Amino acid sequence: MKDLLLLARTTWAGLRLLLAATLVLGLLYPLAITGIAQVAAPWRSEGSLLTAEGEHTTDPELAVGSELVGQGTTDPAQFQPRPSAAGEGWDTLSTYGSNLGPESPDLVAAIEERRAEVAEREGVDPGDVPPDAVTASASGLDPDISPAYAALQVPRVARETGLSEDRVRELVAEHTDGRTLGVLGEPRVHVLPLNLALDRALAAAQAGSPDAG
């Protein structure tokens, strides 16, 4: 009987701890962090959405995409993102990598096919194609590309838009971030904001604006 009472008390203590932890860590803490984020950084807390003008917005109706999520494009006048293995490509409901190992024949074949496509599209030798142009990220939704891949695309984008290569390089530089804290990660180019800036520069050029560059 004593053993049963001890078991009951121990079980009840464990259940109370579980309920308290669930309440604090599963409800109160997330609500508190969400509330702080809504006040301190409303744009980021709502998904880092951007309008066509490249402005921050918290209204999904005005958004053309998120700065945090890669988007596919077939427009030759825009910068292309990394390949995506998420669903049929850049699918936010099926975000994942290919899970293929470096010695997988399927991965090797896919890389070689992508390398040939990029080389033909950009008019360069296949050996000049950077790794991020032919490999999908772990999420399949990587929003950034390397400066090398962006530089590779500059001549094609300039040709298709009619902007000068120098102007396109300026836009790339404006949307390039260095290593986080100067030491973490690699420099990266934000594709969506860059393409939006490119659209605005092209519109300004067509309108004859002196700000077009």
TrEMBL record:
Please give the HAMAP family that the UniProt record associates with this protein. KdpC (MF_00276)
Tell me the domain of life. Bacteria
Where in the cell does this protein reside? Cell membrane
Its placement in the membrane is given as: Single-pass membrane protein
Name of this chain's protein: Potassium-transporting ATPase KdpC subunit
Q: Which gene encodes it?
A: kdpC
Q: Which residues form the signal peptide?
A: none
Q: Does the keyword Membrane apply?
A: yes
| Region: Disordered, residue numbers | 71-90
**Which Pfam family, just one, is annotated for this protein?**
KdpC
Q: What is the lineage of its organism?
A: Bacteria, Bacillati, Actinomycetota, Actinomycetes, Propionibacteriales
Q: Does the keyword Lipid biosynthesis apply?
A: no
Subunit info here reads: The system is composed of three essential subunits: KdpA, KdpB and KdpC.
Organism of provenance: Nocardioides nanhaiensis
Give the family, as the similarity comment puts it. Answer: Belongs to the KdpC family.
Q: What does this protein do?
A: Part of the high-affinity ATP-driven potassium transport (or Kdp) system, which catalyzes the hydrolysis of ATP coupled with the electrogenic transport of potassium into the cytoplasm. This subunit acts as a catalytic chaperone that increases the ATP-binding affinity of the ATP-hydrolyzing subunit KdpB by the formation of a transient KdpB/KdpC/ATP ternary complex.
- Keywords per UniProt: ATP-binding, Cell membrane, Ion transport, Membrane, Nucleotide-binding, Potassium, Potassium transport, Transmembrane, Transmembrane helix, Transport
- InterPro entries in the cross-refs: KdpC
